[in-house]
Write a structure and sequence with these properties.
Helix content: 10-25%
Mean pLDDT: 87
Largest sheet: 4 strands, antiparallel
Low-confidence stretches: none
Distance between the termini: 27 Å
Shape: elongated
Order of helices and strands: EEHEE
Strand content: 25-35%
Strand order of the largest sheet: 3-1-2-4
Amino acid sequence: MLVTLSMVFCLIADPTQCRTVTPLIPDDQYLTMSNCPIAGQTEGARWVGEHPNYRMTRVRCRMGNKPTERSI
């Protein structure tokens, strides 16, 4: 079954302003429930490097279909 990764990032200046990001993981990097949290840290560090005003607040790995990206 498919494992999906989603991460929540909040603005450092206003932690009530958050975004949920679901990165596209290449097919050759098959996610499992055991390696998904590690992929989340790697992808989260990359995202924060491109968006320095945010910090990662949550990594979620779950079985099932890919969630849609949305703001929370």
